Amino acid sequence: MRTEHTQQTRGVEQARTRDGFASAIGAFAATLGSAVGLGNIWKFPYLTGSNGGGAFVLVYLGSVFVVGLPILVAEHLIGRKTRLNAIHAYGSIVPKAKYWSLIGWAGFLSAIFIMAFYTDVSGWVFAYIFKAIAAAFTGGVLNAGTFGSLAGGTWEPLLWQFLVLCLTTSIIASGVSRGIERVTKTLMPILLVLLILCDIRALTLPGAFAGVTYLFRPDFSKLTGSAILTALGLSFFKLSLGMGTMTTYGSYMPDSTRIVPNATRVALADTVVSLLAGLAIFPAVFAFGESPAGGPGLLFNIMPLIFSKMPFGSVFTIIFFILSAIATMGAMLSLVEVPVSWMVEKGKMKRPTAAYLTGAMMFALGILATLSQGPTLGNVKILGKNFFDLFDFLSSNVLLPIGGLAIAILTGWLLKKQDIVRELEKGYGEGKKPGYIQLVYVFIKYISPVVIFVIILNGFGIV
Ligand code: TRP
């Protein structure tokens, strides 16, 4: 209930404008807005391509629904039960066990690691809008050379990254995220339509079927322990799990939101977007005789190729990258919000100060990620990875899964079962109790932590 809020919480909520969530549908849109982003159109296709296709997709789908979905439910319920920012939520959900706030601190760190490379890639997307416009006027083409010189450059990608961060932090600073929410909500369906259009074009190219086979026919001989860990990490990254984003969003959910159905719809819708992106990219990859293991450049190299085979292709290319840019903004806002909400609440910082400070930290690491894609820092390797890959690896394959494991243990083993049940029954009329709660509880308490634990050990070659 709103009236139960502490003075402090209320202050924070007033400082934010994104938290509207006045309705269950608003809560759904906002959650989906955080989930959908580069993960769907960039990361999912490129990781699928680098990890051999179908078998990776199957493991990914399994981890979304067996592990990701229960954790999404757990995060939402912790958020809504405490109605606090992530660090405080984890630190206060169990009496006298403040150290669980460590999950929130790890989340703070994850947000910065993720944004370091996310803003680099988002910068490429923004740059591609302008490159596509220029190409439309000059009759030029966007090809592998275009991507190589952008990503491998020095000042150009840094400038775009800087602009992306300025845009994101200034939106967070001024607290006008409601505007962006509204924009995202209207434009997301258009992105979906455009993706379907690309699917139709890609699937009707000669030789396209090899791409469908690649995406859906599992070849388990290609699956390694580290690929399974990567698929798990991707499912966390996709659903914005393991670091407090979805806890924060849970804290804004009205009691009318039915947490389990809402989370299920988000996971389904998000997965559909990823599969649609895969169904555009892989058929085209095979039809054009490209390699599926094209790495991070896959999206940027293949999409313009598909559009070039369509009438008005140059216009569609521009629209596609504009919509993608908007999708990345929604996700980035939810990432920046995690540290900012804590700084505002606990550090008594002004919202703009918190936003710009967070942005500065992200840019500092972001420079390392961006320059590691080119000659400047390309040769610097830590654990055999350049900075870009290192930040990605540390967040997706280490911090998010461990965060998810901790959240599952905290929820399943330390919270009272009746509290969980009560939270999950909210939104149903009196006397109408949903039948699935036992099942969800078993997944949160036993199945997801065990699966995560085994995958982590296996991924690091321990078992
Ligand atoms: N889910 C977003 C995507 O797929 C990225 C994202 C937003 C995220 N917030 C997050 C990832 C929190 C991990 C944690 O692009």
Query: What's the number of extended β-strand segments?
Result: 0
Give the overall average pLDDT: 90
Bound molecules: tryptophan
- State the helix count: 19
Major beta-sheet overview: none
- CATH-defined fold name: Hydantoin permease
Which value, in Å, is the CA radius of gyration? 21 Å
Number of domains: 1
CATH class: Mainly Alpha
Helix content: over 70%
**Order of secondary-structure elements:** HHHHHHHHHHHHHHHHHHH
Label the CATH architecture: Orthogonal Bundle
Q: Kindly report the name of the CATH homologous superfamily.
A: Hydantoin permease
Q: Characterize the overall form.
A: globular
Features:
463 residues, mainly alpha, Hydantoin permease, 19 helices, 74% helix, 0% strand, disordered N terminus, binds tryptophan
